[in-house]
Design brief:
Length: about 450
């Protein structure tokens, strides 16, 4: 690495990790609640990560505007979270999404939802590991995949184990500010290097394109696949514990809604920067590995110190998302499984230590499973993860929040099992549309049937 690049990298990572440590050390006890800014920081600190940056540029390199669905879907999902779900989630009384399902439909439904939801979230941690390796590969070409993954895992553990939920929110605010500079700045630079918007469009038209990809079409991969990706994001965010936890941690309903609304407007523009970079690199560097499109652009076209700052921001963005997801899984395991099976870990300090232990185990396992030929699947894993979570949780959660006491618990259990099975079966058959639609349809039909059966009793 260029020494100046290294300086920018170290300063950025040190600043963000230092804030995490400070927020963890200054964290007050007694259930302190968060304001709108911290709520937004928690949401965006987890949602805006490798898939929104490295993964978006990677997909844009191959399909252009189709890559916008992750950040566009993320913004739409935060809008629905703010206007439709924030209030009901906070007034339900449950500490976790799975706990709300357990409260309404009983222990069997709750346990199944806990395990399957955790598996879906875990898959997305793997996508963040892959994205982090894309950053470290550019920084240290001779390091090797396994050392890259070990470094990533250690940073993820330090990121949130030290700072906790409030630390993740405060760091999320700083991280988003740096990401805006990095991603929007990279997009503007790509336009400038091309000679302006008109010249950029002309440059894209010169791309060698034997597959006939419509780079300016948001449905370049097909309406079924791309629209399914957007719906997958929407439902996945609504059914992921980390984002619900952000809403539940707010000091008031207004703070929860405002935090989610801030995320609604700030997330989508980040994807545009990644798309512009991905298309620029496809036109000017057609032979590179797609997942390195963004990191290669940063190292080749930005001044050394600035490129180091951007790369450090991208790395911590990925680390923050993986750590936030692991935090959500550990919370589910503590609240919905361990606390129901034993009282050995009652008490705040024991719960905190157990949660940290879960995080280490989860991240270590994700590190091991990431040691394979998965490099071209960053957004693929992210979308699949969102889809699986939605198929498990969405229909039963909607019933628990908006139609309490009206659905038979046996049908809810069947929906929790059948939804993800339908998604996995659809993936195996290579359908021309996102199999999430099948999973949601199956689980929704079962929940509706449960309502009819309950009413007929």
């Amino acid at each position: 690495m260029n020494p100046f690049q290294l300086v920018g990298l170290v300063l950025t990572i040190g600043l963000i990790l230092g804030l995490s440590v400070f927020s963890g050390m200054s964290r007050k006890t007694g259930g302190q609640k968060n304001g709108a800014a911290v709520v937004a920081g928690i949401i965006m600190g987890t949602l805006v990560g490798g898939s929104s940056t490295v993964g978006t540029a990677q997909l844009a390199y191959n399909y252009g505007m189709s890559a916008w669905w992750f950040t566009l879907g993320g913004g739409i999902s935060c809008l629905v979270l703010a206007l439709g779900f924030a209030g009901p989630l906070r007034h339900n009384g449950g500490h976790t999404l799975v706990g709300m399902i357990n409260k309404e439909f009983g222990g069997t439904a709750g346990m199944l939802a806990s395990v399957l939801s955790a598996v879906g979230t875990f898959i997305n941690i793997i996508s963040q590991m892959i994205a982090a390796s894309a950053v470290l590969t550019v920084l240290f070409p001779n390091l090797g995949l396994i050392p890259e993954l070990i470094i990533t895992t250690l940073f993820m553990i330090a990121y949130v184990v030290i700072g906790g939920t409030k630390g993740a929110g405060m760091v999320g605010i700083l991280k988003l500010a740096l990401l805006y500079i990095a991603m929007i700045g990279s997009g503007i630079m790509a336009l400038h290097l091309s000679g302006g918007t008109g010249a950029f469009a002309e440059l894209v038209s010169t791309i060698d394109n034997p597959e006939g990809v419509q780079f300016w079409n948001v449905f370049a991969r097909g309406v079924g696949k791309d629209l399914g990706a957007g719906v997958s994001l929407l439902l996945g965010v609504l059914t992921t514990q980390t984002y619900a936890q952000a809403v539940l941690s707010a000091k008031s309903d207004g703070a929860a809604r405002t935090g989610a609304l801030i995320s609604t407007f700030l997330i989508p523009p980040i994807g545009i920067g990644g798309i512009l970079v991905g298309l620029f690199m496809r036109a000017t560097h057609p032979g590179i590995v797609a997942k390195t499109a963004l990191t290669s652009f940063v190292t080749q076209y930005m001044p050394p110190v600035l490129s180091g700052i951007v790369l450090g921001t991208l790395f911590v963005a990925v680390v923050g998302t993986g750590a936030g997801l692991a935090l959500g899984i550990s919370f589910i395991l503590n609240e919905d499984i361990v606390n129901r099976l034993t009282h050995r870990f009652d008490g705040p300090e024991k719960q905190r230590m157990l949660g940290r232990t879960w995080m280490v185990v989860i991240l270590a396992l994700a590190c091991v499973l990431s040691c394979g030929p998965l490099g071209d699947m960053i957004l693929g894993f992210a979308f699949m993860s969102m889809g699986l979570r939605a198929a498990v949780v969405f229909a039963p959660l909607v019933a628990a929040l908006f139609f309490p006491g009206r659905v038979s618990h046996k049908f809810a259990v069947a929906a929790i099992i059948a939804g993800p099975v339908a998604v996995l079966a659809g993936n195996m058959f290579g359908l021309p549309f996102d199999p999430l639609f099948i999973g949601i349809a199956v689980s929704s039909v079962l929940v509706i049937a449960g309502a009819v059966f309950h009413q007929a009793k």
